[in-house]
């Protein structure tokens, strides 16, 4: 009996240690401390792989929204898939749908209208936030307008070029002066052909955002850049986009019902 009592005493201790060793994955809005916006540079994307003209028309020749994630401050982990089901309403975005066409296009092939990407972002991350679908998706657009990356880089004489390399430190300094410690830079590093020098191509610039989506904030964690000391910032032009087939072109048709999920 004494042996059994001792085992019963040790069992809760074992469970406690087990829980501490394997922390629960953050899966609710209460776990979200900040948002993480990723803006991608199409000049690098379309140099590294084939890009196609969206079915909704030519996008802006600018940094493009890739997604906006939800993060937990204490764990530094992404908070995602908070609900088992997801309803996505196109009509909720009709007041800024043209901005989505221009600044959150999907340039992958075959040509598409971008709807799949917006829905994935909302269902995977947005439902974990305290924002509704309209405001969550719009937050990505608002912040991308606010930071105005191309202009900030241009003021610092960092412009898209196929013949000029830039010092990573100069890019980081330009971002730091304008945005503080709210950014993280990513690059695509080329390794082929092997007889040419390796190139580091500016790929993405990420921003930490307050959980209400209203302002950029200092990132609560440090992430090492994937860029080398010298970075290429290739131009992006519309002729880099392969044309879509005639039968695939067209804008998204809004459902006639006010709240019709897709």
TrEMBL record:
First and last residue of the signal peptide: 1-26
Pfam family, one: Ribonuclease_T2
UniProt entry tagged with the keyword Hydrolase: no
GO cellular component: extracellular region
GO biological process: RNA catabolic process
GO molecular function per UniProt: ribonuclease T2 activity; RNA binding
Keyword entries, A-Z: Signal
Family indicated by similarity: Belongs to the RNase T2 family.
PANTHER family (UniProt xref): OS09G0538000 PROTEIN, RIBONUCLEASE T2
Descriptive protein name: Ribonuclease 3-like
Source organism: Dioscorea cayennensis subsp. rotundata
Taxonomic placement: Eukaryota, Viridiplantae, Streptophyta, Embryophyta, Tracheophyta
